[in-house]
Design brief:
The complex is a heterodimer of chains A (about 120) and B (about 110).
Chain A (H helix, E strand, L loop, with lengths): L4 E3 L2 E4 L5 E6 L6 E8 L3 E9 L2 E4 L8 E7 L2 E6 L8 E8 L9 E2 L3 E5 L1
Parallel strand pairs in A: 2-11
Antiparallel strand pairs in A: 1-3, 3-8, 4-5, 4-9, 5-6, 7-8, 9-10, 9-11
Chain B lengths: L4 E3 L2 E5 L4 E6 L6 E7 L6 E6 L5 E4 L2 E5 L5 E6 L8 E8 L7 E3 L3 E6 L1
Parallel strand pairs in B: 2-11
Antiparallel strand pairs in B: 1-3, 3-8, 4-5, 4-9, 6-7, 7-8, 9-10, 9-11
The chains are: A mainly beta (about 120), B mainly beta (about 110).
Amino acid sequence: DAGVIQSPRHEVTEMGQEVTLRCKPISGHNSLFWYRQTMMRGLELLIYFNNNVPIDDSGMPEDRFSAKMPNASFSTLKIQPSEPRDSAVYFCASSKGQDGGRTQYFGPGTRLLVL
Amino acid sequence: TQLLEQSPQFLSIQEGENLTVYCNSSSVFSSLQWYRQEPGEGPVLLVTVVTGGEVKKLKRLTFQFGDARKDSSLHITAAQPGDTGLYLCAGSRTDSWGKFQFGAGTQVVVTP
C-alpha cells in the first residue's frame, strides 16, 4: 500500500519566491496534518483538516502561509513570499477516524531551503 | 516553551545497555504517543497509551503512562544499533480534539 506521498522531496528557492508543497494522503484517511520541523523548534503542527475542512490553523506562522485541501486525496501548503527563516522540513501526515488515539502516518517530508 | 518536555535531549550508549527516556508535562492528556524518527524520514508511530498507569510492551520497548496522564516513559532493554533514532512523544489534550503536540525529542545513539 502506498503511504503518504509528498512532493517535491527537496526544494531550493530564493527569498521572495512562491513555494508550493504537495501531499497525497493515504486513501481512506479523513484527516490530514501539516507539520514543520526545525532543529530550534522541533516538530510543530501548522494546520490540520478533517474531511477536507480546516479544523485548526492556529499553528500557521503568518499570512504568508496558506493551505488548501480541495478534495480527499490532495492538499497543498503554499508560502508566498518565502523567507530564509522558512527553511525547514515540512511533513504531511494523515489518519483515519476521529478519536484521540488514532495513528498518524507521516510522509517522507519536503526539505525546503530558502536562500 | 514546549508543552511536552523530553529528557534527556541526547543519549549515547553501548549495544546491550538499557536506557530510559522521559516525557513530562503539567497538562493532562487524553492520549500520548511515542514515535521514532530516522534521518531523512518522517516519524513512525511506536505506541499509543490512553489510560493512566497503562504499561505497554513492544518487544524490548516498554512504555508507561503516568497515573495522572501527565507524563510517560520509554524504556529500552538491551539496546541495539537499530534502536538509534530520534524518539518523540506527542500528546493530545481533551480540549484540543485530534490535535497532537510534540516534544522536542530525545536523540538516541546506540554504538556496536
